Every structure is written in structure tokens, then in C-alpha cells.
Amino acid sequence: MTPKPPISPTDIADKNSSEAFEQIYREHYNRLFTLAFRLTGTVENAEDVLQTAFTDAFAAFSRFRFESTAYTWLYRIVFNGAMAYLTKWRQMPTDEWAESRNMSVQAVYDYINGFGNVEDDVLTHRIRESCLQMFINCMPAKYRTVYTLRGMLQLSVKDTAEILEISEDSVKTRLSRARQLAKSHLEGRCGLAFPGAMCHCRGFAGYITHNHREHKLQNIKVVRRLEEDAAQQFKTEMREVLNVDRLFATELESTDFNSFKERLKSLVQKGTLTVLSS
Q1: CA 100 to CA 94: how far, in whole Å?
Q2: Cβ–Cβ < 8 Å for 154, 75
């Protein structure tokens, strides 16, 4: 099947078009999930953000006037949802460990590295992914969001400014500051980025293995698989939502809203519409 071209204002005479919304959301779902994951730090939080964003966007689509591009509009909705999960500052777990035990950070890493090296490339890769996410979590939210949009999702300065509702100069300034923060977090700490630094991936793998904490690590392959699964789930569930929407626009046009609400409630209770379930 030939894929549909991207939606543009001239393509849509009816701004209530559910098919138009479905196409726009599906086109950008994977990157929206990545944005939510990078901003909130966990798959679970990302799924919560995307579920809320879907219902918010679907409800608001009739008011979308294409004064901005569709994807910046969606990114803005996801960004607003993700902000609820963000704090201004988070410490690295090693910093918290050191403070709680009145130890130096160096002593903590000496303890971790004391478990020796692990020759497990898959585990080492997962540790690197988890560490990089943790370094991002340590950034204040205003820098983390710019770093994610520009550095990871490769959005333009203009689109990033539009999504965050800040000036393009502010985007550039915050990205520069975010990169400095990333470097300062890594320098002296991460042996992958700075040889001779305190923490070594394979040594940390030994610590993780010894303490049976592999399940705590982020795994980018799992994240990608969840993206694909969620996109497929969205496509399946959208059929039900669109059917309900069309039903409301035709058969229920002269009926009170309670009938429509009961139809939705029935679908949710049957587990058909998990996107509308809490």
C-alpha cells in the first residue's frame, strides 16, 4: 500500500477529520515516545505521558488551525505532559549514596569498581545506555528539553523554539549550556567519555551483576520494541475510536451526550480502549 503524504492545511477542509488526526499522530508516534522517554527517564512514565497526550490531542484536534506544523503541535502536547514528571534537579545515584553514607564519590566508585570487569558486551551496552539517560536526568528541565529536542531528535532551532515557546536565541543558549552540563557530569566520572575517569562500564557491570540489578537497567532495544508495539496498539485502538466518533456524528447526532458516553464506557470496560483507561 502506498503511504499517505503528510497532512497539510490545504489537504483538510474539515478540521474535525478523525482520519487526518490518525495519520498525523501515527506519523510521529515513535519520535513522540522517544521524546517522552528521554524527558521522563522511564518507559512507564513515557507510556503514561503518551496516553494522556493522545486523548488530549484527539479532543483538541478540532481546534487546531494549522498556525504551526502538526508535529510541533503534538510535540508541545507531549512536552507539557512530560513536564509534570520533571524536577529541577536530580542527583546521580552515586552522589546520593555518597552523601547518605558520608563517603566521597571517589570512594563509591572505588567500591563499585572493586567487583572487577565483566566481559559481557550486551550488559555493558545496557549500562552505557542507562548511564547516559541518568546524566540527562541530572540536567535541569529547561536544559534537558532542549538537549533532547535538538541533540537527540534533531529538530531545528525554529521548531524547538516553537515547541518550547521560547526564542531561537534561547534555544541556542540553552543547548550550549546543556552540552556544558553533560560534559561536566561526565568529566572525571565516566571512563567511556574520559579515559582514566572514576567509573568504568565493565567494572560497573561487575557491581550490577554481583547485586543482581540487571533488571534496573534501561535497554534501548526494549524501548524501540515498545515503540513499535505501542504504535501498532495505537493503530488498532484508533479504529475503535474512529468508529465511535463516526457513530456520534451520524447515528447519535440527535441523541443526548450520555448515550455517547455510555458507548465509550462500554468499550473501556471491555478493555478495547486502553488508551482511554487509567
Answers
A1: 10
A2: no
The pTM of this model reads: 0.58
Instruction: Name the grid cell of 113.
Output: 569498581
Residue 251: the pLDDT is 47
Which residues 6+ apart lie within 8 Å of 175 measured at CB? 146, 147, 150, 151
pLDDT digits (tens, 9 = 90+) for 65-114: 655 677 788 888 888 888 876 654 567 778 888 888 888 988 988 888 88
Number of H helices, E strands in the chain: 12, 0
Q: Which three cell numbers stand for residue 38?
A: 528521554
Which amino acid, 1?
A: M
Q: What does the alpha-carbon distance between residue 268 and residue 246 come to, in Å, rounded to a whole number?
A: 17
Q: Three-class SS of residue 85?
A: coil
* Angstrom distance (rounded) from CA 128 to CA 205: 10
- Enumerate domains of the chain plus CATH numbers: 9-86+222-276 (1.10.1740.10), 93-141+167-218 (no CATH)
CA dihedral 160→9→24→82, nearest 10 degrees, is 30
Exposure string (b/e) for 241-277, b if CB count within 10 Å is 16 or more?
Answer: beebbeebeeeeeeeeeeebeebeeebeeeebbebbe
Distances (CA, A) of 151 to 10, 214, 277: 32, 28, 33
User: What average pLDDT does the segment 10-18 reach?
Assistant: 44
Burial (CB < 10 A; 0-12, 13-18, 19+), residue 161, is buried
